[in-house]
Amino acid sequence: MMVLRAVCFGLLVSEIGAIPALQPYASAPATAVLPSIASTSTATASSQLDQLASFALIVTTERVSNRTAQKRDGCTRNKLRVRRDWRTLSDPQRREFIDAILCLQQLPSQTPPDLAPGAKTRYDDFVATHINQTRQIHFTGTFLGWHRYFVAEFEQALRSECGYTGDYPYWNWPDDTENLEDSPIFDGSDTSFSGNGAPIPNQPPEFALTISGRPPIWLPTGSGGGCITDGPFKNYTLNLGPAGLALPGGEQASAPNPLDYNPRCLKRDLTSSILRQFSNATAVVELLLKNRIVYDFQTSMQGTPGSGGIGVHGGGHYSMGGDPGRDVFTSPGDPAFWVHHGMVDRVWWIWQSLDWGARWNAISGTGTFLNEPPSPNTTLETVVDIGFAGSGGPIAMREIMSTTAGRFAMCIFDFLLFFLSFFLSFFSWGDCCGLG
Ligand SMILES: *[C@@H]1O[C@H](CO)[C@@H](O)[C@H](O)[C@H]1NC(C)=O
Ligand SMILES: *[C@@H]1O[C@H](CO)[C@@H](O)[C@H](O)[C@H]1NC(C)=O
Ligand SMILES: *[C@@H]1O[C@H](CO)[C@@H](O)[C@H](O)[C@H]1NC(C)=O
Ligand SMILES: *[C@@H]1O[C@H](CO)[C@@H](O)[C@H](O)[C@H]1NC(C)=O
Ligand SMILES: *[C@@H]1O[C@H](CO)[C@@H](O)[C@H](O)[C@H]1NC(C)=O
Question: Between the CA atoms of 108, 110, 115 and 121, what dihedral angle is there, to the nearest 10 degrees?
Answer without folding.
Answer: -30
